[in-house]
Each structure stands twice: as structure tokens, then as C-alpha cells.
Sequence to fold (272 residues):
Amino acid sequence: MPLAEHLLEQANHLANRERKKPRQASLRRAISTSYYALFHLLVTEATLNWKRIDQRALLARFFDHGKMKNASDKQRGECDRFINAQPIPAPGPDLDCMKHLRVVSWAFSQCQQHRHTADYDNSKQWTRTEAIAIIDQVAAAFQSWRTVRKHRFAQAYLISLLGSPKGT
Amino acid sequence: MIIPAIFSNTLKLNADINRAAKSLRGDVVHIYYDLGFDWMGYASIFFKIVLSDQSSGPAKLREVAQRVALTLMNEVKTDENGVHAYFNFRSQSEVAQMNDPAWA
Fold:
């Protein structure tokens, strides 16, 4: 996953430049880049399931930010319901997966909103702590994703990122 | 556009947030918030959380931020109230240094 990981590394680099007084441009680009790191991680993972390698880049362009946010909000809700169900769910891979998917889907939703503000609202001032907290959330999402990426719940989440199926 | 009831009952909202802030004392210095709509048009609460300098350091920030966000979402019951919650964290030193009216 080189592009996604390189973007995350770049976000960290930007957030930690100018040790004494960070430039707003550096912090804004750091926040935006961290969102795109997670965006590309998930889109790349989704398109890996497409058999024709030469069409994966084209398929990636069909993913829509708004639909991905809606899917992520829905996924977080499902994770919460699963984790907090009564009776308490039995420990095991399904519960672990839902806990990790919660981290991923929540990070996606949060970071997309922050990215929008960072890119378009020039009245908002950012601090290094704000930027690092957002990047930390993305880094945690990367770790969680690696743990559960092959689980069927995670794979279903990837499909949901394309939008709602007809009839739902 | 649907305006959730929580937007008009700020007394209860303030009480919920104060309760969360008390339980997070030590890490959290102050919690500000704005009510509005996110970029997709969903009713949202934008939390602006001032952390102690110690809790906003690199060793603690990730864990503290996650715990603070979860506590606030549980106390305010954001999902049940039909609002999205977003979180920004600043250190006490940054807030003092920047003198940003949005965080006062």
C-alpha cells in the first residue's frame, strides 16, 4: 500500500515542520493529506478485489467521498450495536473485527470533515496538536485495518463504500 | 432540514458536557462547542477541547483524545440525539498563545 503509507508519512512530516511556529499551510496540508492517506488505503484495498489489474485504477475513480462517509457512519453504528449488544457478544474474531472497524470507520468520517474545513475554510486557525490528533487517528485506523482487512465484515465494509445497494 | 431537539435544549446539553468534563478532569481543561451542520448538511456538534499540556503531548494524545471523544459521545448521546460529533483538540499552551476568539 505504498501511496497510502507515503501520504501518512508526508502528513506527519508536514505537521512537525517549523518547530516553533507551524505555518497554517503546513498544518492544513497535513490534515488534508492524512485524510487522503486513509481514503487511498480503503479504495486501494477495495479495488484489489477486482480481478483485472489493469482496470483497478479506473475502478478507484468511481469512489465518492460523500458515499464513503455515509457508509462509514453506518458502519460505525453497526459496530456500536454489535459491540454493545445484550447479551454481550462472545470474545472472538467477529468482536475483534467490529472493534477495529469502528476505529477505521470513525476515523474516516472524522477526518473527512476536518479535511473539508482545512481545505476550504480559511477563517479556521489550526494548531499542531489539532493536526497531530487527526493524524494519530488515521494512524490508528491504518493499524486496525491491517489487523482485520481479510475478515468478511471488513470486506463487506469495502463494498459498502461504493454506496447503498438498490432496494435498501 | 431536520433540526434535532438537542439544538434547542442547550441547558441539558451544557449539563451533559459539564458532567463529561468533570469525569475527564486532569486531562481536560475546558470544553467548548458549536452547533451547526457538517459539510454534508448533517446536524452536528463541533467539540473544541482544551487539554492539559501533559495530556496533549505525543505520548498521551492518541489515548486521551479517543477517551475524551467516547466519553462526550456517551454523555451527550450524540447518536441517539441524531447529531454527528466532531472533535478538535488543543493544548492549554496553544490556546493561551493563539488568543483565538473561536476558543474563548
Summary: The beta strands of chain B are 28-37, 43-51, 84-91.
